[in-house]
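Fold it.
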Amino acid sequence: MSDTLAAPATHLLEVRHSRFLAQAAPAASIDAALGFIDRMRQADASHNCWAYRIGDLYRSTDDGEPAGTSGRPILAAIDGQGLDQVVVLVSRWFGGIKLGAGGLVRAYGGAAAECLRTAERQPLTIPCELLLRAGFDDIGAVHAALQAHGATPVEETFDSDGLRLRVTLPRQAMDPLVVRLRDATRDRVRIEVPPGKAPPPG
């Protein structure tokens, strides 16, 4: 399972009088990533280059630098650190000495990689959903199990057979919860994954 960042991070790198300020943050959605870029871009910088990785979704931009010399190395730094749901913005103030394509790749990629390497990480929490059906006699055991495993009720209804409950929980808590529910109710609880809500492997 991938990690994400626990908090925003920064790193400043100077290469031949050009300054490269890398700023990184966790981003669970494209809107969050683009919002971070809009807030943190430096108006007086020569270039504001960035990249994000959110699962299978990714994007990068060179912002006027030669094609492939900035956005792509930033994205490569994210992937190289094994991170997901992360956005990185690298702002450059030109120092008067051209770095060449190879120098730009090393500077942008290096600033991003060092920023991410020193940032505080946390395991990426992937949410999933379960549908539960339990008889009236098992409602107490079901709620105790949900609380113990960090599951959050989303929808709760009753009918003549008992409780129908839809919950969300971290992917890594799903299997332990299922085992506890079956043990606590002697396998009387019915557990389903809603259509289209199957969790990814891992």
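The chain has two domains: 3-123, 127-192.
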